[in-house]
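Subject: sequence -> structure tokens, single chain

Hey, anyone have a minute? Need the predicted structure for the following. Not urgent.
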Amino acid sequence: MNDCETINPYDGDTRPKTEQVRDMFDSIAPAYDFMNRAMTFGIDKLWRAKAVKMIKNFKTEKILDIATGTGDLAILLTKKLSPKKLIGIDLSEQMLEIGRKKVAQAGLDNIITLEQADCMNLPFENNTFDCITVAYGVRNFEHLEQGYREMNRVIKPGGVLCVIELSTPTSPLVLPFYKAYTKWIIPAVGKMISKDVRAYSYLPESIAAVPQGENMLQLMKNAGFNNCKYTALTFGTCTIYLAVK
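Reply:
Had a minute. Here:
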């Protein structure tokens, strides 16, 4: 078991992590987009744009966006890569409702469909998608390797997996500032903006616990992916992982 699988949103809650994550994102959905921009100073948009550029040379006619949230990556993928179909899934219906409004406003609801589903048990046939993306979501998986195995099952041979995940910087110059920011400032702002006091304390804990770098690549390899590689961005605070079935 990976450390991130034992970090739950709510202390003392004995329910499965999947249920806790769903309830947490339901509760913070109204504040989610604002907090994303505020916490990353808007750099999260650049990280998503970089990921899209990294997969543009792969086939992307049919895309699955896991942990799609409010649909930011799904919309960007559709605008930049012009897939015939994109399905975004998420545990949180409240996040999806916001996402559906954004998709409709962008005029993309003929291409993008957002559905509630669990990444531990994807409701799709084997070898369905050309490309799978996950942005800022794998650290919330109840069983990380199982999640990767499900992705490997539903992606076509030769298909590309792209994972964007927050990570801990390794630079001794950056690390002290990062630790102070994530331990004190993010939870404090989260308490002011969101009604869920615990959610923005869980965030830095889950980032610290998720496998990173070569350890994340090994999980992808264990699940059957090949050509696994990673690219660290912004002093190592974000990492993009690519793999091919």
